[in-house]
Amino acid sequence: MQYRRFFDAAIGQLKNERRYRFFANLERDTSDVPRAIHRADDGTEREVTIWCSNDYLGMGRHPETIEAMCETAKKLGVGAGGTRNISGTNNPLVELEAELADLHGKEAALVFTSGWISNLASISTIADLMPNCLILSDALNHNSMIEGIKRASSERKLWRHNDLAHLEELLAAEPKERPKLIVFESLYSMDGDIAPIGAIADLAEKYNAMTYIDEVHAVGMYGPRGGGVCERDGVMDRIDVIEGTLAKGFGTLGGYIAGDSAVIDAVRSYAPSFIFTTALPPAVAAAACTAVRVLKQRPDLREKHQRQAALTKHALEAAGLPVLDNPSHIVPVMVCDAEKCKAASDLLMERHGIYIQPINYPTVARGAERLRITPTPLHSDALIADLVDALVDVWKTLDLPFVESKIDASSVEAHCAYPDFRKAAE
Ligand SMILES: *Cc1c(COP(=O)(O)O)cnc(C)c1O
Which of 43, 65, 229, 373 is the most exposed place for a label (fewest CB within 10 A)? Predict the structure, then answer.
């Protein structure tokens, strides 16, 4: 096929830039989390420890979620049977939406087949339903939000990441009556930093803006009932639309928004990427609903999660590894080089049976490549000690720099000494 050269060239470019993605073939073991079997291309199998899963609390293998999925599949089958309109609305899904609305203290919720789709569908639809809307987007927003913003016909402006003064400057420049939608995340998944949500809500109130927050990396994990950082900070009622995923802290699949019933009904009625696609299977909805219910009652699991994450950070810092400081459960270790990041990941797997995938451009800026470690409550203190030894060995082997103390956000550029840092995100 003569067209093949286009694709070969595109892949060649990724390989040249050391950002061609390799997927690890892993089989998790529900009886021995966070262990998994890794199958290499030549078919050899070996046991590894996963240190980078977004199943942050292990709900993907919780006995109650597994049971809910199996039981519901036996009763209701494995597929939804259609779009929500064409016989795809099943009772587990209706219950799940009620559970999510309750979790966030909102009138209603709407479930999508992924968090990515929920952002794309909701942001574009909400903005398009407000004439002459201006979207104000945090510069480090996730791809799914950017896609939603791009899909909207509205004008958009970026505000510098978490920069309240810049956001206020942009808001103040607009007439009060112009519809404005502030779009941001509560917890940014690559740096692990947290937005000043209350202060953003203050600005929204002052300048008459609507607010939309992505709590994907916080739901299930923060707040007394797992309602996210908004719940923890006591500001759930001050944010108009809360978006979350069922695939990370809740361990299953799907995404959602929660908000006023009018907003939810409008997105339900106008978003093509909700209307024209098959609903989430009932068994998945039942498992997700169980995860939400279980986690509403498990502050102990949230505490253990934070404890293991803090222990991991302290142990890595004490060993001189360049941990990026942040107030969350995410542990970024800076490598600042695409090739070495991939090599570090390979060495961890080959020599130490540890799986941590390299995070390269465009997920992070060029020069800000890193290993992103996500301890769960099931990573024991002994596993943490093994991880530290393994990383120290890898750092020495690859001649990567050790540091005196953890790196704070303002010194990342200096540490990585890379002028283009963050440009890609903006
Ligand atoms: C993962 C992610 C999403 C998408 O959620 P999925 O359920 O995986 O599609 C949305 N927003 C952010 C910030 C994410 O990291």
Answer: 43
